[in-house]
Specification:
The structure holds 2 protein chains of 2 kinds.
Chain A: H1 3-16, H2 18-54, E1 60-63, H3 73-76, H4 102-110, E2 115-130, E3 133-142, H5 144-151, H6 153-156, E4 157-160, H7 164-167, E5 171-175, H8 176-182, E6 189-194, E7 199-208, H9 213-216, E8 219-223, H10 224-231, E9 240-245, H11 251-262, E10 265-268, H12 269-272, H13 274-312, H14 314-322, H15 327-362, H16 382-408, H17 412-418
Parallel strand pairs in A: 3-8, 5-7
Antiparallel strand pairs in A: 1-9, 1-10, 2-3, 2-6, 2-9, 4-7, 5-8, 6-7
Helix pairs in contact in A: 1-15, 2-13, 2-15, 2-16, 13-16, 14-17, 15-16
Chain B: E1 4-15, E2 21-32, E3 36-41, H1 47-54, E4 62-67, E5 70-71, H2 77-87, E6 88-91, H3 103-114, H4 119-132, H5 148-160, E7 166-170, H6 178-195, E8 198-202, H7 206-210, E9 214-219, E10 222-225
Parallel strand pairs in B: 3-8, 3-9, 6-7, 7-8
Antiparallel strand pairs in B: 1-2, 1-4, 4-5, 9-10
Helix pairs in contact in B: 3-4, 3-5, 5-6
Classes of the chains: A alpha+beta, B alpha/beta.
Amino acid sequence: MSKPLILKIAYALLMARWKQTLVAAIGVTFSITMFITLLSFMTGLNKLLDGLVINRTPHVRLFNEIRPDSIQPVQKAAEYQSYYHIIHSVKSGNSRQEIYNSGAIMQRITQDPRVLGIAPKITSQVFFNEGNLEITGVVYGVDVEAESRLFFFTDYVVKGQASDLKNVANSIILGKGLADKLLADIGDVVQLTTSSGEQFRLKVVGHFQSGLQELDKTQSFASLTTVQKIMGKPNSYVTDIQVKLNDINQAPKMAKEFNKVFEIDAEDIQTANSQFETGTSVRNIISYAVGITLLVVAGFGIYNILNMMIYEKMDSIAILKATGFSGKDVNRIFIMIALGIGIFGGLTGLLMGYLLSSLIDQIPFNTAALPTVTTYPINYNPVYYFIGSAFSLITTYLAGYFPAKKASRVDPVVIIRGK
Amino acid sequence: MNSVILEAKHIYKQFYDPVKFDVLKDINFQVKAGEFVSVIGKSGCGKSTLLYILSTMDTDYQGELYVDEQKMTGLKEKELAAVRNEKIGFVFQFHYLLNEFTVLENILLPARKLAKKPEAALKDRAHFLLKTLDISKLAEKNPRQLSGGEKQRVAIARAMINEPAIIMGDEPTGNLDKRNSEIVFSTFQQLAQEFNQSLLIVTHDPEFAERTNRIIEMEDGRIIRQ
C-alpha cells in the first residue's frame, strides 16, 4: 500500500474542485480564527480581572479570628459527657488579633519547599482626620519588598515610589480614593487617630490604586514598623501572615495543614474567592461553546462538499476499484481530502487567529480602575492553538468519515454497467 | 503455454428484482494462456453479468471461479482488489480515464498501486506500451484532449501496465465508429500475437467475434457454443 499514491489521488481530486475546496477551507479557517481570537481575548480579560483579586490575594492567609471557643468548658467536664449541652449567651473569648509566636511560624513556613514566599502584614483600623472630619480607614503594615515580590505591590502604586515606604520614616501610601478625599498629594502630611485614641502624623509618599474603588477609598499602606509604632506594639506584632505557594491548587490542602500545625486560622484563596473561579469557568465555557459551534458548522460544509464530490467522481471511484483499489483505499482517499481541507483551513485559521488577536492587543484600553493596562488584554496561550488545531482535525475527520464510507461502498459494477 | 488462466465451474446467478430470475445457469468454461476469446450473445443473455463475475467485482453468485489457478470464490473484498490489480486488466465500453491526471499517470495508476517495481521501471513500461499502441505523443496530454479511439487505446495501455494474466473487455468497441473499432481490434490482436496476452472480450459485434481465436456464444444464461 503506497501512501504517496493515495495522497496524490486525494490531491488531484481536491484540486479538481478547488473552488469548493477553498470555500470549505475558508469555513474552517474562519471558525478556527474566531475560536483562537475569542479564547485569547476572553481568557486575557479573565486573567486581568482575576489578577485584580488574585495577584493581591495570598494563596493562604494565616490569622486569628475573633470568635467563641469551639470547645466550651462544660463540654470538657467528664460528668456531663453524655448530656446534651445548651449554652446561652456564649461570648468570644479570644480578643487578641496578634499571631502568637509569629517569628517561629514564619521561619518554619519559609523553609517549606512548596512555599514561594511569605509576607507578614498588620491590619489596623484608624480614623483619618481632615479638619473636623473623621474618615474611617485601614492602615496595612506591610513588608514592602516581600509585598512587591509576591503581590505586585509596586504595580499598583500609581504615584510616588513604593520603596519610599521603607526609606522614609513615618511615611504612608494612600489609596487613590482616600487621597482624593483628604486632598493629600505626595509630600503632604496626614493626621490619623488609632483605635486606642492616639494621634500620629504621617508623610504621604505615594498613591495606590487597586482597581477596586471601594477598597481604594479606605485602604492605605505603611511599613510594618510604622504601624507597630502607631499601635504601640512590639516589633514581633503581626496580625496576618500571607503565604504564596508555588502551586495555587495546593492551597486548600496546605491551609488545613497550617491550621493543624500552628493552631491558627488559615484561609485558602479558593475558599476566599470562589466566585471569581466560577465566573472564569463560565466565561471559558461560553468561549469554547461558540468556537466549537463554529467548527461544527464548518464541518457540515465539508460534509456537503465531499458528498457532492463523491457523486461527481462516481466514475473515478468505480475505475479505481476496478483496477485494484480496495474499499479501504478509496475510504482513505476521501478521508485525506477531508483532512487536507482541515489541515489547510486549520493552519490558516491559527495564523489568522494569531494576527487578529495581536491586532486586538494593539487597541488602546484605558480605564481608571486598571492602572497597569493600556491595551486590550490577550492571552497568547499555546494551549488554545493546540486545541484549535486538534478540533479542526477532529471535525474535518468526522465530516469526511461518512462520505468516505459511502465512497468506499460504491459498487463498480453498478456504475460501469449503468452506462 | 497451455496453463489455465481463467476457469468457471458451475456458475449460477439470480436476479431478484422484480421476481426471481436465473441470469446464469451452470456456466463452465476455461480460458487458456494466450487465447483471444470473445463472448457473444443477444442483449440480456447474461454475457455482461458473466464478465463482471469473472472480473471478481461481482461476488454474488454460486459456483467457483479460478483466476490463474487461484480460487476467487470466498475471498475478501481487499484480496479480490489485489487480484484485480495484479492479474486482471479491464477495458470498458466507456474509457474511465481520470481527467485529473495526464495520460501517462492514468496508465501508471494501477502499477503505482501494485508498487512492485521501482518508479523508473514502471515509467519505462508505460512508455513502451504507449509506443506499442502507437500513442507515444499523447503521454503528457490530458484525457479530455483525446479522441474516442485514443482514449480507448490509453485504457488498453492501462489494462496492460501490470502485465496481467488476462484482459477483460466489456464492449470495448461499442462506443466507437468503424475506423476506431478497427484500430482497437487490431490493438487487441497485436497484444495476443506479440505478447501472447490472454483476452476475454464481451461483444455484440459478430464481425469482431469472427476474427477472434474462439467464440463463446450465450443464450438465456447458458453457453450454447464454445
